[in-house]
């Protein structure tokens, strides 16, 4: 399909007031619009992705072992797991970069094998590492990609300017990418993936190796993308990232989905809450752990801090309580436990209560903590 002299066929100009990500990482408003190319439409179900029994083998290694997923349209769906869990392989199959050995997968109503070309026309993908040309400038990268997508020279330049502004890169537009910071490269990579205005965007560990400020900038971009109606499938090994962005989360380990649901579902599945305790004397930590386990009927985790303990209240401890009474019951149990510690002469400097964190969920489900790569 040609795009005409202005690079747009039957284009609609939507005054979306798209969010622009500034250098500070804050979200501001822009009067810029996104130009959407008309595409043949097909009725799409509420699920943007439907996967049943997906399997991928590499020789004797089973990288993906019977995964089932349903991703609601217009949301961020998080796929959480450690390195080697099968996240990237799953995304590559859904993006038609790898063929599954078994199972079925439909993306936006299209089969990823028999309708792979149609799937590719509707999706974009940003991998773990920037795929732009480091010897070109930001503008040159985006103009080149837009021209490859079929835009005229004038329209390609306009779209390049638009997305550089939208992602806060205008000031660096004419610098070679090899002189960009990691966060700037990641934003440029995301800009490249948005040139075609995808209905579905695969973000495969987009913040791996980024510093906290750059990660926050990417998070703002993801929120803005979803605000404009794009579905995002986000793979990550950062628990706080999934907690911040995803509406639903699938936890993958050793090629299998071991848990799936909303953040609240996953957190409540491992217990009614957590009690965090800091002691005065590290020599009394084992005594305190024993008393907490006995009094609360809880699983007690020895934190990295030598004076810290986390007691995770078991689900069966409050299974017979109504939802409204769970917090009160947990508070009563904690009060009893603190009294036992005091009677044993164990001084508690501080304590707090809360819902289980995703870190605790991940540890409980996989029996090992998530250990992200070091920030570069």
UniProtKB/TrEMBL annotation:
Q: Does the keyword Nucleotide-binding apply?
A: yes
Q: Which Gene3D superfamilies match?
A: P-loop containing nucleotide triphosphate hydrolases (3.40.50.300)
Molecular function GO terms recorded: ATP binding; ATP hydrolysis activity
Annotated ranges, domain ABC transporter: 49-279
Alphabetically sorted, this entry's keywords are:
Antibiotic resistance, ATP-binding, Cell membrane, Membrane, Nucleotide-binding, Translocase, Transport
Q: Name one Pfam family in it.
A: ABC_tran
Which locations, inside or outside the cell, does it occupy? Cell membrane
Q: Which GO terms describe its cellular component?
A: plasma membrane
The family this protein is said to belong to: Belongs to the ABC transporter superfamily. Drug exporter-1 (DrugE1) (TC 3.A.1.105) family.
| Protein name, as recorded | ATP-binding cassette domain-containing protein
> Which organism is this protein's natural source?
Aeromicrobium phragmitis
Which classification does the entry list for the species? Bacteria, Bacillati, Actinomycetota, Actinomycetes, Propionibacteriales
